[in-house]
Amino acid sequence: TQLLEQSPQFLSIQEGENLTVYCNSSSVFSSLQWYRQEPGEGPVLLVTVVTGGEVKKLKRLTFQFGDARKDSSLHITAAQPGDTGLYLCAGAEATDSWGKLQFGAGTQVVVTP
Amino acid sequence: DAGVIQSPRHEVTEMGQEVTLRCKPISGHNSLFWYRQTMMRGLELLIYFNNNVPIDDSGMPEDRFSAKMPNASFSTLKIQPSEPRDSAVYFCASSIYNEQFFGPGTRLTVL
User: Fold this and answer.
1) How far is B89 from chain A (nearest CA, A)?
2) pLDDT value for A98
3) Contact criterion met (CB < 8 Å) for B104 and A30
4) How far does A2 lie from chain B, in Å, by closest CA?
5) For a 10 Å CB count at each end of chain A, is N or C smaller?
6) Binning pLDDT at 50, 70 and 90, where does residue A97 land?
7) Which pLDDT does position B1 carry in this prediction?
């Protein structure tokens, strides 16, 4: 059972469209991170959110941490083919002090030209 | 900074053989994590170290798997004997605070 549930599992859109990926849990996290993984490579850290209600923007990507620090969303505006990849959310539980992360199963995003 | 270095990048071996995967973490990072990724199970945490000491190995699937971190700049994950169901991509990640940085992975195929 995944501690972090991501939805949808798969998303295929046309270039220029917007998309939102969700990450939900019943646990409270001290921080939550989003990674993007491309084929044949390891996950790459995109952003870390720490404060409940926090919103961070990275160019066309907007990340939001829920007020209760149990959920998060990633919104991409005007998606481009270069946004294609597996998006993973990962949470650090408040009770863990070693840097251990709980990963979601990921959302595979495909952006076609 | 060279990032996390893993070797080999690809390994093909026969069932029953010993496999050793290697990882060099980012200098200054105090935690190191070994993960396994498959289509069916996603990214699974196998074991992690803090300051070279194993903290939690509950994700190691069987006694056939073992990991060591003899110093701050090197870790190994060994599978002995290997089985076809061990085929997967194995990632090493190092971290400081709660941000993990992943290596490129080792794709293991056990025939």
Assistant:
1) 9
2) 72
3) no
4) 10
5) N
6) low
7) 63
DSSP for chain B?
----EEE-SEEEE-TT--EEEEEEPPTT--EEEEEEEETTTEEEEEEEEETTEEEE-TT--STTEEEEEEETTEEEEEESS--GGG-EEEEEEEEETTEEEE---EEEEE-
Look at A45 and B48 and tell me if their CB atoms are within 8 Å.
Answer: no
Q: Which of B4, B96, B100 sits opposite A101 (nearest CB)?
A: B100
Residue positions counted in chain B: 111
Q: Taking CB atoms and an 8 Å limit, are B42 and A101 in contact across chains?
A: no
> CB A105 to CB B42 under 8 A?
yes
Spatial contact of A32 and A89, defined as CB atoms under 8 Å apart: yes
Residues 2-21, chain A, touching B (beta carbon < 8 A): 2
**A33: pLDDT strictly greater than 80:** yes
pLDDT score, position A2: 54
Query: Which residues in chain B are contacts of A104 at CB distance < 8 A?
Result: 42
A34, A89 in Cβ contact below 8 A?
yes
| Angstrom distance (rounded) from CA A89 to CA A69 | 13
